[in-house]
Task: structure prediction
Amino acid sequence: MRLSRFFLPTLKEDPKEAQIVSHRLMLRAGMIQQSSAGIYSWLPLGHRVLKNIEQIVREEQNRAGALEILMPTIQPADLWRKSGRYDDYGKEMLRITDRHERDMLYGPTNEEQVTDIFRSHVKSYKNLPLNLYHIQWKFRDEVRPRFGIMRGREFLMKDAYSFDLDYEGARTAYNNMFVAYLKTFARLGLQAIPLRADTGPIGGDLSHEFIVLADTGESEVFYHKDLLGLKTPEKDSYTAEELQAVVDEWTSFYAAADDMHDPAKCDVPEGDLVSRRGIEVGHIFHFGDKYSQPFDAVVTGPDGKDVTVSMGSYGIGVSRLVGGIIEASHDENGIVWPENVAPFKVGLINLKSGDGPCDAACDDFYGKLSAAGIEVLYDDTAGRGGEKFAKMDLIGLPWQAVIGPRGVASGMVEVKNRATGDKQELSVDAALNLLTGKA
RNA sequence: CGGGGCGUAGCACAGCCUGGUAGUGCGCUCGCUUUGGGAGCGAGAGGUCGCAAGUUCGAAUCUUGCCGCCCCGACCA
Result:
């Protein structure tokens, strides 16, 4: 992509409404534009990142055996009356009336909808276990939206729903998602730790929040230092026993958010207890028959008797992750994207656009990288070096390739690693090999 | 939902107290000089001063009402 043909409205100065770093950087890097409180448009750069994250989440859900569907954003109120949540949800639910005076709502989540789908079609235990997920926009009319995309009212969430014959099956489904989440966050370049979460009125011990560590996080977390040394599971599939073993390992260390942390009850030696800040990016829980019971989601069991299915739900805040990753990965010059989510892999800077030899060298380099399947943002604009460097640092592409009159004369390209700041002078071929991963 | 703050050009802000033809920097357009870490000079474009009512000869400025946005706290992917 040539920058001269791209839409990248960057800002030199900090917009005053943005207080936290991810919000500031997203606005300055031209990723998003606010529409109203907690509601944003995604501009090309931000949209690319959002889609990259979404795709990784999708791949890991698929790998875990969940099936992708797409449920509507607008739901009929009657579904929610059935579960009793139409009255319970309160003002956070955006209620709409259609032209026929029917009560509708913009979905804040989809338990009712998915249970209705299940109930309509699944009648036998032979079709279990089942896990259906979608990645869809949600709306929660938060009292106080803030931090840009991190707590918007409209947000993109992956939500999966599992259906099992009994508690044992449901626990395996839960463990399966637990492990999928560990893989997902690792692929996103994040250190995420699972915390035992408050299960609220539902009770039970199966609920975990996944927290991304970032100094600017909104809640304080306490955990045993060895938790971060654990190896992320990598296999494609696991047996129920293996899943349980992974979950047991990850939950064997102390980890709690400030609301669950009780220093009196925490038995971790002081030297081993770490306290940092974190951002919640995922939440999984088992809730049994809370929805299957009122919706009559029943299958016939092996013995011919009806069984109300046992359910769980599993959320990942996809749009929040964009902010979360920036919070966890930035420096004083801007964003530092992990390679897997970066909007482009390489930023190519032409230091003297309009100069024949320089343009030719850049065009050639750009053509070769593109032909190798590398996504490149090529700054072919007439600007000066300084502003081009600053802009590339701001938008945080993992690699920068710099070609100017000096390099053209000597046949060299300067390649900079955004994360480490390391710069090296390489021949064109060596630079191509490095950037295409053939080095 | 309690508390606080702010709305003036695309962005950041001054002007308001003490009413009198709307300003600065950045950005944008054109020209020239520049070009390896956000250049210099010159010439331009761009504003119903959030909205409405009121006071006044005259309102960005004073009064009242409304709207929007942000921050702190209690709650949430």
User: Anything to note?
Assistant: Residues 194 and 251 of chain A are 8 Å apart (CA to CA). The first strand of chain A starts at residue 32 and ends at 36. Chain A has a mean pLDDT of 93.
